[in-house]
Amino acid sequence: MAYGLEIQEIPEEKPNLYGILTRFQWTHDNIQAVMMDIENGMTPQRGHSKVGRKQPGKSQQLIAK
Fold first, then answer.
1. Average pLDDT of adjacent 10-residue blocks, the chain of 65 residues
2. DSSP alpha helix (H) spans, 1-65
3. Beta bridge partners of 27
4. Phi, then psi, of 26 in degrees rounded to 5
5. Which of 4, 8, 21, 42 has a beta carbon 3.0–4.6 Å from 37's, enabling a disulfide?
């Protein structure tokens, strides 16, 4: 199962941001890894960065137009 976001007015106002948000999907394993890191004292930013470093292609996929 993948998790994503649903946004109402962004497509017209900020199309680049909307593109990133529509391609953004996390698996349960991604969310669980970040939450466990935060639970163990890591900042949310570092936890997210850690997941990004493990999946560098995913970051490129998000910012591709």
1. 61 81 83 92 90 78 70
2. 10-13, 15-23, 28-39, 44-54, 56-63
3. 2
4. -115, 145
5. 42
